[in-house]
Amino acid sequence: DSVLQSWERCRQSGKSPNEHVEFDPVDKSKLAFLFESENNWLEIAKIELVQLAKAISDAGYVAMITNAHGSVLAVSGAFEKRCAPLRWAFRPGVDVSERSIGTSAMGLALAEGREVSVLGAEHFFSNNQLFHCYAVPIFDPKGKLLGSLDVTRDTPGFSNAVRTLTRQCATRIERRFFNALPVYLRLDFDTGSDASLAFSKEGQLIATNRDARKLLDLHSIPVSCVFEDIFEDRFEFWASKNQGEGNHPPQIVLKGGVCLAVQQTRNLSKVLSSASKQEPSQVNKLRLPSDMAFHAKLNLAIKAFNASLPILITGETGAGKEVTAATLHALGDRPNGPFVAFNCGVLPAELIASELFGHVEGAFTGSVRGGSIGKIEAASGGTVLLDEIGEMPLALQVALLRVLDTSEVLPVGGVKPRMVNVRFLCATNRNLENMVRDGHFRSDLYYRISGMQITVPPLRARQDFEDVLSRLCVKLEHGVHRISPDAIDKLSKLMWPGNVRQLQHLLKLAFAVCDELSTLEFEFFQTLLGEQSTMTSYGMQLQKVHAPNNLIDEALKQCNGNIEAAAAFLGISRATFYRHRKVNNQQVKSSKALF
User: Is the pLDDT of residue 412 over 90?
Assistant: First the structure.
């Protein structure tokens, strides 16, 4: 029936079985965008794809992964032994959807959300009838269709063993994605399958696997579904106890009375027990995102970081780059080592070298007696974050490159380098590739610091706005329940040019001036946001040119001299605010000297 319905759709769209099929790939620029848009799960999937291809290549099969729209994302197999049409079809960027190549296993798997075989003459176009294909859909932990996994051969005789291996491969991809989520509580059920559910700290259902969705008869996770919507028990009970250590598996009761045995529970508090040994300031910075795409990328970044690769963290101002850096450090394999952050845009060029690399006694006027170690050496055994790396002067970029290449630091005025054992994180809100092209940043340093690049999504693009809002309220010692649900919903739809930092200061101001937050209306937020957005537009200009005195002074006046609040109103960091204020003060002094 599926094949017949697909043929009918092809006929109705004006296609003829005798038409020639073109497997046209997209151009390189669009291909890069395609990979980036699917990167949150593609890197996970590629690992399993390669292993599947190794198992089936000698039997004449090749494998591919597509996205939900039917574009090929990755291929693997011994293509040199396969026919030319198959080699043309199996290329990244090729559109293998039903609208492009007619009836195929990939197209049907995507259309129907289930595993499908399309063998030989079942393909709509006669040119494709030499293919024998089997495809399985791939879903994310919320039940959303991500794409498909397909295996194909150009000779008859499709093996059932290959179908089994392909099905298992798709399951492992989904399991990897599920296991990558830093969830608060996870329940694994003893039902003869691998059914698992995962919840946030607030008890919201944030992840399921395929077996769990079958068990609960869910196609996808309902919006705002919480623990008590599924079970008769209370979330607090399961979150506070380790139910997996008893001699007998505990039971949990579904709504309606069905009793399930719980094979194991996993609580995030145990995973983070080692992190609690860190300094309190570092533990406070450990904020795991519940935006699934973001924390899947974060999980990959942790693996790269543990392999001693430097990580480049990019993102808009206020998006949370430093928090992301602290999280990478805390979840890495050396969380008890020091975490030292240095802002490359705070100090003048002549002082950055001393701060980063240290200095010997007498190296310059005002040097410390006996000399001083720098930030990099102070971070030995741990992590150093070079924030606003795009602000680092060209002359010092050479010295930093030497440290990255040799793991040696040469103090200012010194002749003997010192060995350091440091991992590097760099952060910027600037486009370093453009800076390299314009000659403002060294290309060799850019490639050296970007062993892996992770972009912190802007607040307007995150899928966990309510979670971010809740955490900020806790940080400000207020409950999110004091903001009306309608206001939260409308806040989540705003653009937030200042990102998380802007939201935090807006909440701080709202909690300070509103007597009764339970009646807080959206209009109040919108008024504040409108004022702040206006100031933020000036803040964006500040990052390109020096700010006029009256803008800095006006921001301070509006915020009663509070520099942190003034910086937030301008949509810039405190370090950037200080830098522009210093430049402006120097300009004022110079102007006075002229008269």
Answer: no
Helix axes 549-558, 563-570, angle to 10 degrees: 120
Instruction: Judge contact between 484 and 518, C-beta under 8 A.
Output: yes
Cα 403 to the chain's mean position, in Å? 28
Q: Which residues contact 111 (CB under 8 A, 6 or more apart)?
A: 6, 98
> What string of H, E and C letters represents the secondary structure of 172-221?
HHHHHHHHCCCCCEEEEECCCCCCEEEECCCCEEEEECHHHHHHHCCCCC
Structural tokens at position 540: 């964006």
Contacts 24+ apart (CB under 8 A), 175-181: 175/209, 176/44, 176/47, 176/48, 177/41, 177/44, 177/140, 177/141, 177/296, 178/141, 178/207, 178/209, 180/44, 180/295, 180/296, 180/299, 180/300, 181/141, 181/206, 181/207, 181/292, 181/295, 181/296, 181/299
Two structure tokens written together for 464: 């966990």
Q: What is each CA distance from 538 to 498, 551, 555, in whole angstroms?
A: 12, 8, 11
Per-residue confidence (pLDDT) for residue 79, from 0 to 100:
85
* pLDDT tens digit sequence for 521-531: 555 555 555 54
> Measuring CA to CA, which residue among 109, 61, 63, 64 is closest to residue 81?
61
User: Is the pLDDT confidence value at 595 over 60?
Assistant: no
Q: What percent of the chain clears pLDDT 70, i.e. is strictly above it?
A: 78
Q: Tally Cβ neighbours within 10 Å of residue 315.
A: 18
Residue of 530, 527, 532, 569 lying closest to 547 (CA atoms): 569
More confident residue, 335 or 152: 152
pLDDT at 84: 86
For residues 44-63, one letter each, b for 16 or more C-beta atoms within 10 angstroms of the residue's C-beta and e for the rest, the string is bbeebbeebbeebbeebbbb
Residue 543: pLDDT band by 50, 70, 90 thresholds?
very low
pTM of the entire predicted model: 0.49
- Structure-token match 């069905």, residue found: 258
For residue 461, give the amino acid letter. A
Please report which residue ranges of 75-193 form alpha helices under DSSP H.
84-89, 98-101, 105-112, 160-179
Calculate mean pLDDT across residues 118-137: 93
User: Which range, 254-258, 452-456, 490-494, is most confident?
Assistant: 452-456
